[in-house]
Amino acid sequence: MDYRVIRQPAEAALAWVSDRRADFALGDDALAPDGEVSRTWKPLGELALTCAAVSRHTAPSDPLHAHAADLLAFAWQQTGEGELLVRLQRLEPFATYPLEVYAALASTGLRHPGYEAAATVVARTRGWQLTEQSATRRLGVLNAEERTGVRRSGRMPQALRDTWLGGLPEPWTFEHDSGYALTHVVFHLTDWGRTGPGGLPPDLAAYLADWLPPWLDTCLDARMWDLGCELLAVAASLPRLPEPAVLQDAWERISGAQHPSGALPEVGDGDDGGEPDFVRHYHSTLMAVFAAALTTGRLDDGVPVGTPHRRGAEGVLG
């Protein structure tokens, strides 16, 4: 297939992210007790996760690699090279999001021994280990513990079977919330693309090979671009990629939904006229870059394409 159908939207998306880097910066409320994590640490952590994946799956000579490395340096600088995470750990010792943000940075070699020492002490407590969380959330925390070395519990296989995807549910029960849950299960099992399909149990890989293409088609028909990009990232994590026609069609639709600046709306049409609203566009734009980096990386590795799958599941969202 023509790589340009994937490459061009990815380049435009990462260019928009680079242009809007100031919107990812931590404000004065980053350590405030009543600060909005979803508007401070969450965007920065997602920026770090995406750029870590791009760095891993592109050559140093690739302009995408250079952009990603520059943005990673920006994200690390925003944390005070880890010092703000140390302060956050003291303020909220049982919050999990600092560890997840740190794990993304640590996966690229950006580490802070003081933060790791403090997080390790808390992770040993019963209070931390028994915190009530959704199954998918628990899987994410366990992955963050593993990738940073804060704690190695070996509990990810057990936690997996408590998730929606881990139970291999009836495919027609797929909907918005379960869609996001399943994508994150795959991201955690593959360490956000770092380990590739080796992290997926064979039964999950076979199930996704059958049903992910019709789910993807349904989401794109509904103009759910953010979830569609996450599903494309999942597709790039399977032992075999979907058929070239499936990928070609999906990326053409995503490219068609992009704003001229490169931003991609989460759902529906983008903003009319001016610069796209950051909150409504940043996550889906990052996910387009993430999915593209994983897909082109797998294609460069010579992964087979053309996974057979069952037909007739179109319209599972309604």
Structure description:
Helix content is 58%, strand content 0%. The chain is globular, with a radius of gyration of 19 Å. It has 318 residues and is mostly helical. The chain contains 14 helices and no strands. Helix 1 packs parallel to helix 13 (244-257) and helix 2 (41-57) packs parallel to helix 14. It has helices at 4-19, 41-57, 63-78, 83-91, 97-106, 113-123, 126-129, 135-148, 156-160, 176-189, 202-221, 225-235, 244-257, 278-300.
Instruction: Please report the number of helical segments.
Output: 14
Helix content: 55-70%
**How many distinct beta strands?**
0
Radius of gyration: 19 Å
Keywords:
318 residues; mainly alpha; 14 helices
Helix and strand layout, with pairings?
Elements (H helix, E strand, L loop, with lengths): L3 H16 L21 H17 L5 H16 L4 H9 L5 H10 L6 H11 L2 H4 L5 H14 L7 H5 L15 H14 L12 H20 L3 H11 L8 H14 L20 H23 L18
In short:
The chain is mainly alpha-helical and 318 residues long. It has a domain of 178 residues.
